[in-house]
Amino acid sequence: MKLTPKGMRDFLPEEAIIREEVRERITNIYRLYGFVPMETPALEYIETLRAKAGEEIDKQIFVLNDERLALRFDLTVPLARVSANLETARPFKRYAIGPVWRKEEPQKGRFREFWQADADIIGCPSMRAEAELLSMAKTLCSEFGFEKPRILLNNRKILNGIAKRLDFEEKKDEVFRTLDKIDKVGRDVVEDEIIKILGQRGEELLDLVTTGKKNEEKLEIVEKISNEGAQELRRILSLCNFDIEVDLALVRGLGYYTGPVFEIKLSDEIGTVMAGGRYDNLLKIYGRGDYATGISVGIERLITLIMEKREKKKFTYSKAFVACAEPELYNQASQIASYLRKNGIETETDINERSLRKQFEYIDALSIPYVIVVGKRELEKGRFVLRDMKTGKEELLTEEEIAIKLKE
């Protein structure tokens, strides 16, 4: 009997600890850049979500039985709903970290319930907003040990200009949905599908967007098609002092993007880990219009990569365990544990009244790094054995000295 719904998972402590650490580290980076938290419900009115979901995402929305409510498919639409009716200083820089749901076919790195970590800037027309988001993304990559991310950049204005130039504006949604699959299925498959839609113009489109030229050469080609789009990308590139690749085939699947769009890849196997773009028209659907741009980190894919790199699993937050050598000393062991906790040290002690051997079996099972052994002789002297479980080294220290040592 399957106990979890399709595409949804339980997380045991060894993985849940990593997930919590990842969320905390992302939060710290967002705060460094001046973003503040905001929370919204998991459920939204279906009209709110469908207002700008796009055909592909609309099929993936989890609708409740009454047909009026549905689970959010991202964190951007709820932000737009709130921000369109929010009187606050601009730019409004918010972050949100939480689960979202999409009814799609599960595969490696892709689930029906997954977490996103978003940061968005409301009320800034300047490309400095995009540059800040990309700089923050680069900082996030470094935070997790990925020093050479592949950052891809395009502009929806350029894509719309191409659709107008090649005369397929009425079919552009279908064409761009197909083009968006090029990384997943390859150029040949996409070319066949686009030629079926556009005929000879399909080859022209692919030749244009898949040119292997350098950034400036690409922009010189497309500035005649969309000068505004090309200039916006030039501005972003000039503000970022790290490698960015202009990718004219980059679409981004959601229908609400209006300007620059970007993706960050850390691994060819796992696909895009961070992505975002400008969506200046989204807020006015829900109230007062405003400029808006943002980035979303796919926590599931990021964690998959982190776990592949991590050699040792962590089964507990506890840094120390106060082991009791004799049953009548449990109260004293608890007092020492309390002292260490007051000093900010995550500490456990035995609550099952087990033998010392059994206590050490538990310590080994959870890989707790330090053990303090409490016995009658140690209590009389006021000094206790602190054992490093990795090296086996032992020191005889007072409570105060143990606290100082474990804080190092």
Give the full name of the CATH homologous superfamily of the largest domain: Bira Bifunctional Protein, Domain 2
Strand content: 15-25%
Largest sheet: 8 strands, mixed
Q: Structural class from helices and strands?
A: alpha/beta
**Silhouette:** elongated
Just name the CATH architecture of the largest domain: 2-Layer Sandwich
Radius of gyration equals 27 Å
Mean pLDDT: 92
Q: Please, how many helices?
A: 17
User: What percent of the residues sit in helical stretches (DSSP H or I)?
Assistant: 40-55%
The fold-level CATH name of the largest domain is BirA Bifunctional Protein, domain 2
The counted number of beta strands is 15
Can you tell me the number of structural domains?
2
Strand order of the largest sheet: 1-4-5-10-9-8-6-7
Describe this structure as you would to a colleague.
This protein is of the alpha/beta class. The protein has 2 domains: 297 residues, Bira Bifunctional Protein, Domain 2 (BirA Bifunctional Protein, domain 2, 2-Layer Sandwich); 88 residues, Rossmann fold. Helix content is 41%, strand content 20%. The protein has 17 helices and 15 strands. The strands form 3 sheets. The protein has an 8-stranded mixed beta sheet. A 5-stranded mixed beta sheet has the order 12-11-13-14-15, with helices on both faces. Strand 8 and strand 9 form a beta hairpin. It is elongated. The two termini are 48 Å apart.
What's this model, at a glance?
With 408 residues, the chain is α/β, with parallel strands linked by helices.
What is the fold's blueprint, element by element?
Elements: H1 13-32, E1 36-37, E2 43-45, H2 46-50, H3 55-58, E3 69-71, H4 76-83, E4 92-101, E5 113-122, H5 128-143, E6 150-155, H6 156-165, H7 172-179, H8 182-185, H9 187-198, H10 200-209, H11 215-222, H12 227-239, E7 245-246, E8 260-267, E9 271-278, E10 292-298, H13 299-309, E11 320-324, H14 330-342, E12 347-349, H15 356-366, E13 370-374, H16 376-381, E14 384-388, E15 394-397, H17 399-407
Parallel strand pairs: 1-4, 6-7, 11-12, 11-13
Antiparallel strand pairs: 2-3, 4-5, 5-10, 6-8, 8-9, 9-10, 13-14, 14-15
Helix pairs in contact: 1-5, 7-9, 9-10, 11-12
